[in-house]
Structures are given as C-alpha cells and as structure tokens.
Specification:
Length: 71
C-alpha cells in the first residue's frame, strides 16, 4: 500500500524528536516556516554553512527513516 501523508508525518516527527535540538530547529525553520538559510543563520546566531550542514544531516536521517519504513 502507498504511504499516507499522515504516516510519513508521524515518522518524520518521531525521527526529529530523536535529533539534537539545533538539527530539529533548522529543519523546522526551513521546511515548516519557509525561512531562508540566511534568515535561520541570523536568528540562531550561526553561520549559513552550519545551517546547510545541520539541514543536510537532518534530511539524510529522515530519508533513511522513511526508506526503512517504505523500502
């Protein structure tokens, strides 16, 4: 069967909750709040490069979780 939006959201939420706070915040700022990398960097007092790195890590972890669930 096809994954539902709800089941995917649950997996993403569970995966996020196990991540370090900065990774969670960066992911949510970019994907849920629609902020730019620069906006996130300024708001969190980190560099744009740190935003990129944390987002990439979070997306990779979430991708692995979804892959395990849905193959």
């Amino acid at each position: 069967s096809f994954p539902t939006r709800r089941s995917s959201d649950l997996i993403i939420g569970e995966t996020l909750s196990g991540m370090p706070a900065l990774q969670q915040e960066v992911f949510l700022d970019i994907h849920m709040e629609g902020r730019t990398y620069l906006e996130v960097a300024k708001a969190r007092n980190i560099t744009k490069r740190v935003v990129e790195y944390q987002l990439r890590k979070a997306e990779r972890i979430i991708g692995c979780s979804l892959q395990r669930m849905y193959g």
